[in-house]
Amino acid sequence: MIDWLLDLLITLLLLAAVGFGAIAVIGLLLFPDIRSRSFTGIRAGILATALVTIAGICYGMFAWFSFGGLQYLLYSISAILMLVLVIVLNHLATVVLCHAAVPVGPPREKKE
């Protein structure tokens, strides 16, 4: 019984990741300015990566508890480290895109 529940959970996580990945691509293609393109692409892409990583963690933990073996534990630990890396890079991208923006003043007139 737990096998099909885990399969359903992993399938839903991966489908949500595909959806957020599609949102990232559509945002990169359709939004007019660079700031909204970057913000949408990074946020949706990070969510897609996090969902795939969580699906990997679920699979690794289930396989470790079911079959044993050190490789599944190492896979889960590396997936958790990947999720931490994604969270840290999300924070850095937010700082770069939102907080460290260069202010734009009014256009200068040409002196002749």
From TrEMBL:
Name this polypeptide is given: Uncharacterized protein
Q: What keywords appear on the UniProt entry?
A: Membrane, Transmembrane, Transmembrane helix
Q: Which residues are listed as membrane-spanning?
A: 12-32, 44-67, 73-102
